[in-house]
Amino acid sequence: MDWVNLSTKELQKINSELDDFFLQRISIEKRLKGIKPEDRLKGIKPEELKAIEAYLNTMKKKMY
């Protein structure tokens, strides 16, 4: 990706996506905080876990 040639609008969109990503990450971390490591995934429904994995995979692709 050529960062120099991105328009302001494109940069704002990327910034917004990163903000959303980090807000969701903070939300997930808050949910997991205080839960014993072995119990962390027990409170998350399988469909939520799939959604989290899909979201993280999407963000990985966008960043590389």
Order of helices and strands: HH
Helix content: 55-70%
The termini sit apart by 8 Å
So how many helices? 2
Q: Per DSSP, what share of the residues sits in E-state strands of 2 or more residues?
A: under 5%
The tally of strands reads 0
Task: Describe the overall structure.
With 64 residues, this protein is mainly α. It has one domain. 67% of the residues lie in helices and 0% in strands. It is built from 2 helices and no strands. The radius of gyration is 15 Å and the shape is elongated. The N and C termini lie close together (8 Å).
Task: List its traits.
64 residues, mainly alpha
Compact description:
With 64 residues, the chain is mainly α. Helices cover 67% and strands 0% of the residues. The protein has one domain (3-63).
